[in-house]
From TrEMBL:
GO terms for molecular function: metal ion binding. The keyword Manganese does not apply. PANTHER family: ARCHEASE (PTHR12682), PROTEIN ARCHEASE (PTHR12682:SF11). This is Protein archease. It comes from Ktedonospora formicarum. GO terms for biological process: tRNA processing. It holds the Pfam family Archease. Gene3D superfamilies: Archease domain. It comes from the Bacteria. Transmembrane segments: none annotated.
Length: 145
C-alpha cells in the first residue's frame, strides 16, 4: 500500500461517474481531518477560503467507518444548508463512536469562490479505513457528485 508523506495528507482518484479520495493520518483524528480537508478541496480550493467563521460539529455512529461517513456527511449538510466552506479543522473530542470538532472557514461566495465539484453525498461503496505496517491509517472514500 502506498502511503505518501504526511505533507500530502490526501489524494484524489477518478471513479466512474463519481470521485474518490484516499486520506492518510498518523492516528484516527488526523485521518478524519485530512479526509475533511480533501473533500472540501474537491469543492473549492482551500486557498480561496478565508478563516472568518467557526462552527462546532458533533456526530455519532456505531464504529470508525460509519463515524467517518457521518462526519463527512455533516460537512456536506453544512454546505447545503448554510453554504459553509470550512478550511481548517480541530478535533476537540474523539472516540470510536463520537467526535466533536471545530471547523473554521466562511460562507460560499460565488464572486470569490470557484466551485470545482458539487458533492451530493458520501457513498458506502468501497468505503474503508485500514492501517499499514507503520501504524498509519488510510481511508478510501467515494463521493457522489
Amino acid at each position: 500500500m502506498f502511503v505518501p508523506e504526511l505533507s500530502h495528507p490526501y489524494e484524489v482518484f477518478e471513479h466512474t461517474a463519481d470521485i474518490g479520495l484516499h486520506a492518510y493520518g498518523r492516528d484516527l483524528p488526523e485521518l478524519f481531518i485530512h479526509a475533511a480537508q480533501g473533500m472540501e478541496s474537491l469543492m473549492v480550493s482551500p486557498e480561496q477560503v478565508q478563516l472568518a467563521t467557526t462552527q462546532e460539529i458533533g456526530v455519532e455512529a456505531h464504529d470508525h467507518l460509519s463515524l467517518l461517513i457521518a462526519w463527512l456527511d455533516e460537512l456536506i449538510f453544512l454546505f447545503d444548508t448554510q453554504f459553509f466552506l470550512p478550511r481548517t479543522f480541530e478535533m476537540l473530542d474523539f472516540s470510536e463512536t463520537h467526535l466533536r470538532a471545530r471547523a473554521t472557514g466562511e460562507a460560499y461566495d460565488a464572486q470569490r469562490h470557484e466551485m470545482s465539484s458539487a458533492i451530493k453525498a458520501v457513498t458506502w461503496h468501497e468505503a474503508a479505513i485500514t492501517r499499514d505496517d507503520n501504524s498509519r491509517y488510510q481511508a478510501r472514500i467515494i463521493f457522489d457528485i
